[in-house]
Amino acid sequence: MATTKQELETFLWEGKDKRGKKLKGEKTGRNETIVKAELRQQGIMPSRVRKKPKALFGSTGKRISARDIAIFTRQLATMLTSGIPLVQSFTIISQAAENPRLKKLIKDIQNDVESGSTLAESVAKHPAYFDELYVNLVESGESAGVLDQVLDSIASYKERIESIKGKVKKAMFYPATVMAVAISVTALLLIVVIPQFEQIFQSFGADLPAFTRLVIGASEFLQSNIFWILLVVGGGGYAVVQLKKRNKPFAHFLDRMSLKIPVIGPVLEKSALARFASTLATTFAAGVPLVDALKTVAGATGNVVYEEAVLKIREDVSTGHQMQLAMQQTGLFPPMLIQMTAIGEEAGSLDAMLNKVATFYEEEVNNTVDALSSLLEPLIIVFIGVVVGSLVVAMYLPIFQMAAVM
Description:
This protein is mainly α. It has three domains: 9-51; 66-156, Receptor-associated Protein (Up-down Bundle), CATH 1.20.81; 157-405, Receptor-associated Protein (Up-down Bundle). Helix content is 74%, strand content 6%. The protein is built from 15 helices and three strands. The protein has helices at residues 32-41, 66-81, 86-96, 100-114, 119-124, 132-144, 147-204, 210-246, 248-258, 264-285, 290-300, 304-318, 323-330, 335-347, 350-405, and strands at 9-16, 22-29, 45-51. Strand 1 and strand 2 form a beta hairpin. It is flat, with a radius of gyration of 30 Å.
């Protein structure tokens, strides 16, 4: 009868070395006996070994981010290059991991590898963290006996992609945050401050200027309907996000419109091009056939418009067309990228050319985001000044009017 493989657990230990110096630390193992035996092999006489207590309320730590996976891949590549066996590398990395979820993920992969699965098969069981591209590249590296080199390439690729994502988020987050603050301040003034002025004006019994009446009307509307406004805005935002996930034509429409937004659109376009070039270069360099590589690349562009274009390119390439010609037919790729692809195809160095293109567009994204921050800052300050200033003027107009009459 087959026995279930016991999972690794974390133990806290205390002991002394050969010189009598007191030591303590953490170590993973299947049980206390094995942990004690391993400590003795390291020249440590354990005096106490106990299971590490679980976090209060069953906390499992923060979620595992794409950056965590990139760091894990880089660490694994470095250790394999240094000659450390795969299983031992997992043990070392899991001991250093601070996120309990990441630690458990690494242990699960280690258990599968120890049970006889390949690394590709092990990571494929966790599609939430390791996508099809990752699995295919690892499988390629294991088959060719160059797993350390492939993992190094994957780590570099993921670091580049995360850097691009970070820049795009920065470009979107900064103006969105400032606008949200401006709207919140305006709403606060309309709900809290304006009603106080309204009571004062009513006590005067004088006719109010049209602009003041307009602001007071807006204040009364907001006070009466704040719940419904928040419900509509929140519900509308949630509906758009869900519809984008589930409705391809709607997602295509939104992504196409986002590419046309002034200033923001070029950042999204260059980001998609950088991700396209970087992903295709990485997969092609790892020995993945071009048609298969394009299928993986489509989902990595981060934009439905470019995803559909890449799938169309894949369709054309599979029927015998040159890639640069297929790219040209989509009307989405700039002449420079098409020409570099053509040169790479002719010279048999497509991955090298695409890497250069990826580097170029990454720098373009960096420069555009930096310029965007410099451009938006004064515009946002002016916007806030105009909105808040208009409310202040609206409230003081009746006072100025009465002063003029007196």
